[in-house]
Amino acid sequence: MIYVVGLGPGGEDQLTPRALAALGRCDVIVGYKTYIDLIAPRFKGRKELVVSPMKGEVRRCEDALRRSREGCTVGVVSSGDPGVYGMAGIMLEVAAGHEEVIVVPGVTAACAAAAVLGAPLTHDFAVVSLSDLLTPWELIARRLEAAAAGDFVICLYNPMSHGRPDNLRLACETLLKTKSPDTAAGWVRSAGRDGEEAHLTTLGELAGEKLDMFCTAIVGSSATKVVGGRLVTPRGYQRP
Amino acid sequence: MIYVVGLGPGGEDQLTPRALAALGRCDVIVGYKTYIDLIAPRFKGRKELVVSPMKGEVRRCEDALRRSREGCTVGVVSSGDPGVYGMAGIMLEVAAGHEEVIVVPGVTAACAAAAVLGAPLTHDFAVVSLSDLLTPWELIARRLEAAAAGDFVICLYNPMSHGRPDNLRLACETLLKTKSPDTAAGWVRSAGRDGEEAHLTTLGELAGEKLDMFCTAIVGSSATKVVGGRLVTPRGYQRP
C-alpha cells in the first residue's frame, strides 16, 4: 500500500488530519530532503525516513513500489498538493495498477499564495509551471498565450530559479502580447511558511521583480483589481 | 476581525488545523446551511452560528462586517478553498480595507476530485465554472475554447444543476471543436465526503453522464491517459 501525501504549504498547521493519519500508518516515508525535514520532528525514530534526491523521481517511485511489495506501508510526500506538479502522477505510472496507491490531497501553492494576496482566484484561472526541465518552452508559451486569450487569472508555479533566470521575463513578454501592462498582479514567497512575503505589482513590473523557486506569482484577469491593499478578482456578486 | 475560512471537501479530516483554530477564535460563524451543518457538531452551543441563504452573499458579508465592527471576531465559511469561487473575494470587496480580513485556504474541489481519480492535474490546468448565474455564457465559452487551444487539463466546477441542465453539454460541444472525443476524462461526486463516487469517461461521453451540483469534472489534455484504472497526466519524468 502506497500513500502519496500532500503536506500543504509547509507549516504543520496546514497539514490535514487525513494526511497526518496516512503518514501515521506508514512504515517508510520517502521524499525530497526539504519535505522529510518538515515531518521529521514528528516522525523521527518512529518511521524509516528516506531522503531522495531531486531529479530522482522515477527511482524514488520504483523504490516505494518495491518496499510496498515487500509488505511495507509506504508514504511518498510532496509539498502542497501531490497532484499538482507533485509525485502522484509518476507514482501511479510506476505502480501501473499493480499496487494500491491512495492520493491524499493538500492545500496547493496557488490557493496558499492567493489567500495571502487576497482573493485573486475567485473566478476562472489557469495554472502554468514555468519550469522547462520537463516541458518544452514552446508548450509553456502556447499555454500562456491561450490563458491570456481566455482572460484567465494565471497562476505561475516555479516562476524563476538559478537554472532558469529568464523564464519569468519571457513569460511576461508572452502575456504582454495580449494583456495590459497595468494588469494587477502579485507574488508570494514562502506562502504559509516562516518568512512569508506578499508583494502587489503589475504585469508590466513583474518581470523585474526578484523571485525565486520558493515563489508563486499570480497575474490577474482584466477584472482583477486591488481593493484595500488586497488583490481581488470579483465573481460578480456585486458590481461596484 | 474577519476570517474567511475554507472547510475543505467536507469531511472533518480534511479541515486544516489552521482553519479549525481560526474558527475557534470566532464569536460568530456565518455561511450557507450546508457548511454550517458541517461544523455545527463541533461548535453548536459554543459559537453563534448564522445560516445565510444562497444568493445572499453581499448581505452576508455586510452582516459579517457590521458584527466585526461591533467587536466580534467573525468567521465566514466556504467549502473547499474560500478563494476559489468562494466567499473571499466578495468579503474583501465589502470590507474594502476598512476591517482586517484573513483568508484561510483549504483543499479545493479540483484537488480533492483529482486525488480520487488519480493524478489528472499533474501538468498545467485550467479551472472553469459552468455556472452562468454570475458570468455570461459567452465568457465561459471563450475560456473553454482558450483552455482547449492551450491543451490544458480542464477542471469544470458547477458542471450541472437543475437550473442549468444544458451547460455541461454545451461545454463539451465547445471543447469538442478542438479536442478529440477520445480525450480521457473523469468526474467525481462528493469528493472527500460521504457518498464519494468516481467515474472514468471520455470527453465524447461526458455530456451524457448524470452529473449534479455536487460533482466536479476533469477533461484531460492530449497527454492525459488511464493507467491501471486511474486518470493520469504525466509531468514528463518518464516517457514510457
UniProtKB/TrEMBL annotation, chains A, B:
Pfam families the UniProt entry points to: TP_methylase
GO biological process assignments: cobalamin biosynthetic process; methylation
Database matches in Gene3D superfamilies: Cobalt-precorrin-4 Transmethylase, Domain 1 (3.40.1010.10), Methyltransferase, Cobalt-precorrin-4 Transmethylase, Domain 2 (3.30.950.10)
This protein's UniProt keywords: Cobalamin biosynthesis, Methyltransferase, S-adenosyl-L-methionine, Transferase
Origin superkingdom: Bacteria
Residue intervals of the Tetrapyrrole methylase domain: 1-207
Molecular function terms, GO-annotated: precorrin-3B C17-methyltransferase activity
InterPro entries: 4pyrrol_Mease (IPR000878), 4pyrrol_Methylase_sf (IPR035996), 4pyrrole_Mease_sub1 (IPR014777), 4pyrrole_Mease_sub2 (IPR014776), Cbl_synth_CobJ/CibH_dom (IPR006363), Precorrin_MeTrfase (IPR051810)
Protein name: Precorrin-3B C(17)-methyltransferase
Entry EC number(s): 2.1.1.131
Pathway: Cofactor biosynthesis; adenosylcobalamin biosynthesis
